[in-house]
Specification:
Elements (H helix, E strand, L loop, with lengths): L14 H103 L3
């Protein structure tokens, strides 16, 4: 039993008022819960948007990496083709050089032999 100032008789809460009091508290709490839920959902939507943005960025980066790798592979193939062509040219030039060296050795020997046979 509670006594309120200014009143001489004790006031006892009625049982039907307890339910009203509870509903009033629930009514005061409910808007807070609704606001919390709205905020939670807003944060979830925001996080989902940010994750989608990060995923797009990862995909863009991966696409750029794939494109760069394809360009590198193509350049490497072109380099390999050119290097093989140059090696082939080198072989051809070396064969010509060896043939020219052999021809010169033969000509040199012939000229030396002719100079030895020439009268002094």
């Amino acid at each position: 039993m509670r006594r309120f100032s200014g009143l001489s008789s004790p006031i006892e809460p009625r049982s039907d008022l307890r339910g009203v009091e509870r509903r009033l508290r629930a009514g005061a709490i409910q808007p807070g819960l609704q606001a919390y839920e709205r905020e939670r959902q807003r944060r979830e939507r925001e996080e989902a948007k940010e994750e989608a943005s990060r995923q797009k960025q990862r995909e863009r980066r991966q696409h750029a990496v794939d494109k760069a790798q394809a360009a590198l592979d193509k350049a490497e193939q072109e380099h390999t083709r050119r290097a093989a062509a140059l090696r082939s040219e080198i072989e051809t030039i070396e064969e010509k050089l060896n043939a020219e060296e052999a021809k010169w050795d033969k000509e040199k020997q012939r000229l030396k032999a002719a100079s030895r046979r020439a009268p002094d």
